[in-house]
Amino acid sequence: MATPNTENLVKKNEEYASSFDQGHLKAPPAKKYAIVTCMDARIHAPQAFGLGLGDAHIIRNAGGSARDAYRSLVVSQQMLGTTEVLVIKHTKCGMVGLTNDGALGVIEKNCGADAKKECEGMEFHGIGHEEEGVRDDVQWLKSQKAIPDSITITGWIYDVETGKVREVK
Length: 169
Fold this sequence. Notes:
Layout: H1 4-18, E1 33-38, H2 45-48, E2 56-61, H3 66-78, E3 84-90, H4 100-111, H5 113-119, H6 130-142, E4 152-158, E5 165-168
Parallel strand pairs: 1-2, 1-3, 3-4
Antiparallel strand pairs: 4-5
Helix pairs in contact: 4-5
């Protein structure tokens, strides 16, 4: 059954494909870096971070969690040759203050006890504070053996109200 979203997908994709001329791009990103950022719909990563098609890997998940993105980062570096990681969290993130117990409570309320049980082993990677989350993810990535010391890893905060980024040291 078609929904307004699937109808939009088909229509907009037809428009995009009619002038698409980037089929020659290679899978490894041209600028050899990966970005880990949040799935928040207020972040238009290519525009906000100055990316063209094929420039970088953009790995998105709830909260921009490096732990959730780890498998993709290992593939990005070991199989596709990236040499840098930018961890970019953002202001007003819904993951700030989230706990596993809190998430499981919402799941149980909305979907029932069986759904809660199904999700009990899941780590939701809530964030205490954006900067704290960035520092923690950068340090965690630097401690992983499958992320070589030669990989540059930096942390950033994107402000959803101004569109600006700032580095977190």
